[in-house]
Amino acid sequence: MTLKAIRKLLSIATFSGLLLPMAAFAGNSQGRIEMIDETANTIILSDGLTYQLPGEFDYSVLSEGMKVLVFYDRDGENRYVTDIEPIDADGKAGIPEE
């Protein structure tokens, strides 16, 4: 492969990378639930951010004031919850053992 061909491939790859939209990425956050909106399927944490819950979510397991660890996928400004776990008094996340 010639140097000219390598440069051409490199410039095409770079240009293509710039054209691709930003991919969604995963993240997590912990805080206290400030508000639950079952109509909009959202919660707002003490960080002030809104998190979108799945359409068929069991809201009976959540309450305002509850400390939680939220795992989410982010797409632009939207945060879609993939998992949510309570945080106990010791600061440990997870479902309490019975």
Automatic annotation (TrEMBL):
Signal peptide annotation: 1-26
Key words of the record: Signal
Pfam families assigned to the protein according to its UniProt record, in alphabetical order: DUF1344
InterPro entries in alphabetical order: DUF1344
Highest taxon listed in the record's lineage: Bacteria
Protein name, entry field: DUF1344 domain-containing protein
Organism the protein comes from: Candidatus Tokpelaia hoelldobleri
